[in-house]
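Supplementary notes for students who missed Thursday's class. We covered one full example, reproduced here. Read the sequence, then the structure, then the short commentary at the end.
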Amino acid sequence: MRMATVKNQDIEIIAEIGSVHDGSFGNAIKLVECAAESGATVAKFQLHISSAETSENAPNPSYFNSESRFDYFNRITFSKSQWLEIKERCHSLGIKFGCSPFSIEAVDFLLEVGVDILKIPSGEITNHPLIEYVAETGLPIHISSGMSTWAELDEAIAILTPVQNICLMQCASLYPAPPLKIGLNNILEMKNRYESKRVSVGFSDHSTGIVMPIAAVALGARAIEKHLTFSRKMYGSDAFNALEPLEFKEMSLGIRAVEIALQNPVDKNNIEDFLENRLIFQKSIVAGRNLAKGESISLECVKFLKPANGLLPSEWKKITGRKINRNLPAGHLISFEDLE
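Structure (token representation):
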């Protein structure tokens, strides 16, 4: 049996760790390890510097009101040496270190640490000074479209045009995002809209489960981002809507399976792989009873039985009404040689 050719795996699978670590350096390192074990190619964090990002009285999102965002961001921060260790742990496991900066100060910090991928969060899509600053780094850039209009995305892409490695991620900034709000159609629209600008398209998923990311790959997404947590019962703003390690691994395996299928188009006329099963499951035209010489072939005197080692039923009209040139026993495979 001919085996399919498997090409290199080039779909980026991003484990969005975000702030699930809740300020625990040990948890951050362990989450990187879980990401690698679960099939991720990137472990992505978020870097919040409260004083550069938010006012002290800014409102919280409805799904997280346990403490103010200002205090929360201050509490979960890491030192530069800890970020360096996180990056080095990513690299030692063969995965990239990605991060979302929420301020220009955060970009500067990440450049000092040495980040592999920068992601512009959906809430920053109208922050043109930040986007311009990120563009000047020359690093690969992912952009979340979660709460953006087409006009806003057009403006952001125009700023980033000189950058060679841009991935625009379809996203719905709802937690969780229900199927009717996912917007998988926008993956196709983004591909058509920005193809001339050499922008690849990905999918940042906030739905529950693993179905939507796999569907996105089938539609052409080249990068998939999904939140990762030890447990959905963990404290914080992200854990409740994330995948646990075994679920993330199942998603990764599904993505790779779809990737292989997409990379190996099948010629429907090439039935080499199915010859054995065709013999077993298709049928032949056989004598349904003892047939006498001179008798005409009709439905009444034949059967269509497995296996397919004789004339196929699709050839029925070629023999119907023709006379038999010799006596045939019941079960005989009828052939053209049996007919006048």
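Commentary. Residues 12-263 form a domain with the TIM Barrel fold (CATH 3.20.20.70). Residues 245-263 form the longest helix (19 residues). If anything here is unclear, bring it to office hours.
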